[in-house]
C-alpha cells in the first residue's frame, strides 16, 4: 500500500555544486469541490478538476550546497525580493523536510512569476505550490535518481498538496481526481491522479473564461473556510454527496451528456457557497455581480441552447465553462455582455491544459 512513508527519501547523495531548475505549473478548476480537510492537508472528500493552460506560475529554483543542515532560502517575485511570501514558503519547507531531508543541504533562491495579471485577484497558490514542488522533485532526481517516473510524479503532487491542497491537482493530466473514493481506481488522499477512464470528445480542450468580479482581498481565507467544515451542521451529508457526484461525473464524462454535466457542475458550485453561508460563523464570498452574471448565463443558455455553465471557486469570480465548438459565440457574449459586470471589464480566456512543464534555462 502507498503510504506517506513510501515517499520518504532516506537514501540520497549530496551534490556539491550549484544549479537551477525552472518549471511552469497551471491553475486548475474543480468541478467537484474540495471543501473541508483533516490534519496534514488530507481532504474530507474527493474532488475532480479540469487543469488549466494559460493561468500559470513559472518558478526557478537555484540551489547551492552548504555545510550546515537547515532550511535556508531567498524569495523573489519577478526578480525583486518578496518577503511577504516567506511565512508560507517557510511552513512548506518545514512540512516537507521529513520527506525530502536533502533540502537541508542547500541554500535556495526562488524566483517566481505568474502569467496572469498581477492584480487580478486570482489565487496563485495552486499553480505556485505546484511549480515549486516540481523544482524540488527535479533536485530529488539529481540526488536520488533511482525511482520510477510515476513515483516522482506522485511525490510532486504530494508535496504540492502540503503547500496548498488543491495544488496537487495541477501536476499531470487534463482531468485530475484527488481524494480516495471507491469509484476511481487508485485514487488517493495523498496525491492527485489522472482521471483514468474514457472521456467524450466534447470535453476535449474545454474552455474556461474567468470573469474577474472582485479583485479585493477575500474577507475569509480558504484555510478558515475549510476549518469551518468541522462541526458544520451539513458536513457529513456534503462529504457523502461529493463521493456520489464523482460517480455521476464519471458517467457524464464518458457519455458527453452536457445537460447532466451542467446540472452537476452548477450544483457543486452553489453547494460550496451554501456551505459557507451555513457555517457558524457564516460568510458570503459572492458579490452582487456574481449573481448578475449567473442569471445572465442562465438566460443566454435558455435563449441560445448553447451549453455554457458556471462554476465558482472560494471567491466572487465566475468561471464560465463551454465546449470549444461554441467558442466564438460564447466569447462574443462574454466580451459584449458579461464583461460589463467584471471589475475593470477584466476576464481571462483559458482552456484545458496538461500540468507542469520543465523550462530549459537559456
Ligand atoms: O487548495 P485550497 O486550500 O485553497 O482550497 C481550494 C478550495 C476550492 O477552490 C474552493 C475548491 C477546490 O477543490 O479547488
- Mean pLDDT, to the nearest integer, reads 95
The coarse silhouette is globular
Multimeric status of the protein: single chain
Low-pLDDT stretches are none
Number of strand elements: 14
Name the structural class: alpha+beta
Helices and strands, in N-to-C order? EEEEEEHEHHEEEHHHHEEHEE
Helical amount: 25-40%
**Separation of termini?**
41 Å
The share of residues in extended strands comes to 15-25%
Computed Rg: 20 Å
What compounds are bound to the protein? (3R)-3-hydroxy-3-methyl-5-(phosphonooxy)pentanoic acid
Largest sheet report: 8 strands, mixed
The helix count comes to 8
List the defining traits of the structure above.
362 residues, alpha+beta, 8-stranded mixed β-sheet, 4-stranded antiparallel β-sheet, globular, binds (3R)-3-hydroxy-3-methyl-5-(phosphonooxy)pentanoic acid
Task: Please specify the SSE layout and strand pairing.
Layout: E1 18-32, E2 37-38, E3 42-43, E4 47-65, E5 72-77, E6 80-81, H1 86-96, E7 106-114, H2 125-143, H3 149-163, E8 175-178, E9 192-194, E10 207-211, H4 222-227, H5 235-255, H6 258-277, H7 288-304, E11 309-312, E12 318-322, H8 327-336, E13 347-351, E14 357-359
Helix pairs in contact: 2-3, 5-6
The site of (3R)-3-hydroxy-3-methyl-5-(phosphonooxy)pentanoic acid has 13 residues, from loops.
